[in-house]
Amino acid sequence: MKYCFFCLCLLLTAGELFAQSNPPARVSKRWLESLDSTTQREVLEESRFAAGTDMERGFGLHLMPFSFINVLPRLRLGAQFKSNRFSYLLDVEYGFDRSSDLPNDLAKRDYSFFGLRPEIRYDVGRNYRDVYVGLELPVTFMERNIQGRFTTLEGDRLSVDVARQDRFRLSAIGKVGIQRLIGRHLFIDVYTGLGVFLRDVKYTDRVGVREDIDDFEEWGFFGPVQEGRRWLPEMALGCRVGWWF
User: Fold this and answer.
1) What is the pTM (predicted TM-score) of this model?
2) Distance between CA 100 and CA 74 in Å, rounded?
3) Could you give phi then psi for residue 17, rounded to 5 degrees?
4) Is 65 helix (H, G, I), strand (E, B) or coil?
5) 62-95: per-residue pLDDT in tens?
C-alpha cells in the first residue's frame, strides 16, 4: 500500500516523540498531604494527565484516515472501551463504487465492501504505558465486477470480459502498537502486526469466457485471484485518529 512506509516510520518514531511530550509531573508527597481532599484530587488529576495516563479507562471514537486512499477506498469507523489495562474495540468499514476504473486491465473499481473488525488489547506495563499488544479478528465481504484472467476452482485458467467476484475473508492478526493522547481528548494510535487469513473467492455471472493459455501470476488485491479457499499470511500496518471522552 502507498501509505505502509509512512505508517512504519510513524510507528518507529512515535515512542520517542511521545516520550518527549507531556513529561510526568513530580508532586511532593509532603506538600500534597498538606492540601485538603478536594485540592488533592485536582492536583492528582492534573499530574496524571501530564504523565499521559489519562486513557486508563473510558470510551473513544476513531477513524482510519488512510482507508480513504486505499486501492478500493472505504470508510472505516470504530469505538473503543477501556478498563484499566484491557481495551475492547469494534471497527466497521464500508465502501461502494460503481463508476471508475483502475489504471490496468485486470480489474474495475466497481465494488461493494463491508467489514467488521473486533479487537482486544492489553497494555504492556507501567513503564510502557502507551504500548499495547492485541488480537484482531477481521471479517470482510466484498463483491466486485472484474475483467481479465483468473484460475478456477478446478485449476483451469480462464479469461473473461466480465465476471462477478464474491470474496469472504476471515483474519487473525497479532498486533503491537502505541496509543497516546495529544491534549485532553485527541488521540493517535499506530500499530503493526502479523497474522493469517482465510480467503474464499467465487466467480459468477461470467461473460465472454475463454481458455487462457498464457502463463500469468496471481496479483492479489490488484486483480482477479484464484477461486476457492486458501490460507495466506497477512501483515498489518495502520494509524487511527480519534476522540477520547
Assistant:
1) 0.73
2) 14
3) -65, -45
4) helix
5) 999 988 887 788 999 999 999 888 999 999 999 9
